[in-house]
Specification:
Radius of gyration: 18 Å
CATH architecture: Up-down Bundle
Number of domains: 1
Distance between the termini: 25 Å
CATH topology: Four Helix Bundle (Hemerythrin (Met), subunit A)
Number of strands: 0
Largest sheet: none
Structural class: mainly alpha
CATH class: Mainly Alpha
Order of helices and strands: HHHHH
Number of helices: 5
Oligomer: single chain
Length: about 120
């Protein structure tokens, strides 16, 4: 999921944003670009470190747990940032656009759940 979480590009496109709203969204995303890059880099390194201890010749449970905890911390930081960006963008939407976004998000969640169930069969 992108920086806006479920409010990603597909949904944003379907909300018929005005030019001013599109510019505001771009501005919000631009204002968080450096933070996003930093957290993205941290996430990559945390994944890499976890994979290294998982792939080691000997199992070191403490190291695996420590690298897993590091990854969880970075993912939590990313989740908080995504929520902050989403909240900023959400305030730019009209009440009608917000309702439409909620409807589209619910439909997307249903499709994902349906796909998950089909995959489990």
């Amino acid at each position: 999921m992108g920086m806006l979480g479920p409010l990603g590009p597909m949904i944003m496109h379907r909300l018929d944003l005005t030019d001013a709203q599109r510019d505001q969204v771009k501005s919000v995303l631009e204002s968080h670009r450096n933070d996003l890059k930093t957290i993205g880099d941290r996430t990559f390194e945390a994944h890499r470190a976890l994979e290294a201890v998982i792939s080691a010749d000997t199992i070191d449970e403490a190291a695996i747990r420590a690298r897993s905890a590091d990854l969880a911390t970075v993912e939590a930081d990313m989740a908080v940032m995504r929520a902050q960006v989403r909240a900023e963008v959400w305030q730019m939407l009209t009440p009608e656009q917000q309702q439409q976004a909620k409807t589209l998000e619910a439909q997307m969640a249903q499709r994902m759940e349906y796909g998950r169930r089909q995959h489990q069969k």
